[in-house]
Design brief:
Structural class: mainly alpha
Number of strands: 0
Biased composition (Basic residues): 75-85
Region (Disordered): 47-85
Biased composition (Basic and acidic residues): 48-64
Keywords: Membrane, Transmembrane, Transmembrane helix
Low-confidence stretches: none
Subcellular location: Membrane
Mean pLDDT: 77
Shape: elongated
Radius of gyration: 35 Å
Helix content: 40-55%
Order of helices and strands: HHH
């Protein structure tokens, strides 16, 4: 072959500071998303005592509390106006 082939690697410029921040920010964002998805898929109970407290039967007094009705202040009669033609 008459021509020599250049097998040297292409020159790639050094990444800038902004490119590095973007790259590592994307990595941290992906890791954070994976942790969030795993937290949803694999729920961890806080403690055995907290679980037993939530299953205790409640007294009928605490369940049936009557709610006080709030007075309706904004019920004012609207002033009727005649249609103009």
């Amino acid at each position: 072959m008459a021509a020599e082939l250049d097998f040297s690697p292409p020159e790639i410029p050094e990444p800038t500071f902004l490119e590095n921040v973007l790259r590592y920010g994307l990595f941290f964002g992906a890791i954070f998303q994976l942790i969030c998805v795993l937290a949803i898929i694999l729920p961890v109970s806080k403690s055995h005592k907290a679980d037993s407290d939530s299953f205790e039967p409640k007294n009928s007094e605490t369940v049936k509390k009557p709610k006080a009705t709030a007075p309706q202040i904004s019920k004012k009669p609207k002033k009727e106006t005649k249609k103009k033609r």
